[in-house]
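User: I'm new to structure prediction. If I give you an amino acid sequence, what do you actually give back? Let's try with this one:
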Amino acid sequence: MTNTELAATFSKIADLLQIKGEVIYKILAYRKAAESLTDLGREARAVWEEGGIPALIEIPGVGKAIAEKIDELLTTGELEFLNKLTAEIPGTLADLMPVPDLGPKKIKLFYDELDIRTLDQLEEAAQNGKLRGLPGMGEKSEAKILAGIASLKRRKETGDRIPLERAWPFAQEQLAFLRGLPGVEAVEAAGSLRRMRETVGDLDLLVAASDSGPVMEAFTTQPGVARVLGQGPTKSSVEYTNGMRAQVWVYPPERYGTALQYATGSKDHSVKLRELALDQGLSLSEHALTDTETEKEILCTTEQEVYEKLGLQWVPPEMREDRGEVALAKTGKLPRLVEIGDIVSSLHNHSDYSDGKTTMREMAEAAIARGIKVLAITDHSYSLGIVQGVTAEDLLKQREELDALQKDLGSRIRLLLGVELEIRADGTLDFEDDVLATLDIVVAALHVSLRQPREQVTERLLNAIRNPHVDVIGHPTGRQIPDRDPADLDMDAIFAAAQEHDVALELNANPRRLDLKDIYVRRAMEMGIKLSINTDAHHPDHFDLLHFGVATARRGWATPEAVINCWKPEKLLVWLETRGG
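Assistant: Good question. You get back a string of structure tokens that encode the predicted 3D arrangement of the chain. For your 581 residues, that looks like this:
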């Protein structure tokens, strides 16, 4: 059994124990073991073969009881404990746990009362109105469960795609490993990762080297590889102990440009380029550009050469989705996309006044170290109870502390006091206008009741946009990748209101959100709506997530002029003041 299979077994045990109502510490023990096995840099089987149960106990999160179960699984392929558990409660109930808005207590209720054991049975019962008569259930909760099942099915249809949050850092480790190999002249990620899509499939890694043999050998035998899926002179594929898969291509340096363009995609973008090449009497492949009459190859060591030979501007990878970029590249009119170096302000951040992990001073010093010129502290407002948000009295104390900190830090950074203002379930806002008027910036956001009907949840957001003191709408749709779908908003109405009231829409750079989506960023650009790219930092390290947001903005063709974080501090402050913020 691989680490992935072991982790899946312990996750299933944890789910079944939770449905059964077992004590929480047992459930958490199995979840921790599953997490540790997923993140383990080598196969647990290898650890076990070297030192048996004592060696397994050395794995973080694996105690004696879990180690003995791993030993049993690796020895027999089965686990008596799981067999006994599934004799008490059907193992298929664990398949219901990923359904949004469906918890273990409801799953147990449906099983006890209606003998519902599978997702199909649950969907059928909900469609036929059989759930609404159970304790704590009604038509609305039944509708929520149906919506949750539909959401889960959509996620399954995407296949085993990996959130950018996991794929990107792991890919950086692999790229660093490959760059360190002898004879390697260049290495790049390709595919959807290079285009910075919010989820990726297998990792595509491209290497320029004259001799592919040593690269392939090192790649397939490196620590962390669980299985070699294929190995050849040009391409090899592996599966890692963490469940991810990657393939590496090795091309001679003189063919690297066309290979990188081909491997980056997207498919539709590449088709456009091949059609353009044919119009010019050329064929384009991963190996070279070829004259169709003479069959003479035109080799390209860089991508820039490929585009230049075709009479095009070089197209940034994030734009290569066949959304009109090739036509613009023909005329040399591609926009200058926003870059990390353009960002000078961070306008949505938290401190220990709410759920931030450090003080305002620590956040400010970390911002200064990263070249940030304007830092807004926007702690949650009070009604979001789980984060112990700030009250009006807290804001007065926070203002006093921030003013003293500003005096101490001087001109190194400009500090703003703001709030992440809760938009309540009934559409009202946490603070009255007289409190909001005292703040430098107001970021309003949805956190609760995201599954309300479209008209209701949209009106809540519109109410915030219409408030003259609201400057930015934070993570507008409330989604979390891959676990929570966006709220069912009328985005046409949201965009129209933001345009009318000159409110900026945030692109939250946290890779679990990336909210706005790239397609909405593009729409905002077309309508002249201002954008704000923020990391929503709860810890100084979170400032380093900025590149995820910038990449998503680039996918939506965002320019520095459209992003208020890129403005000179003087221009930003004038805009905030004239808005009444």
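You can read the tokens as a compact description of the fold. Here is one thing that stands out. The radius of gyration is 27 Å.
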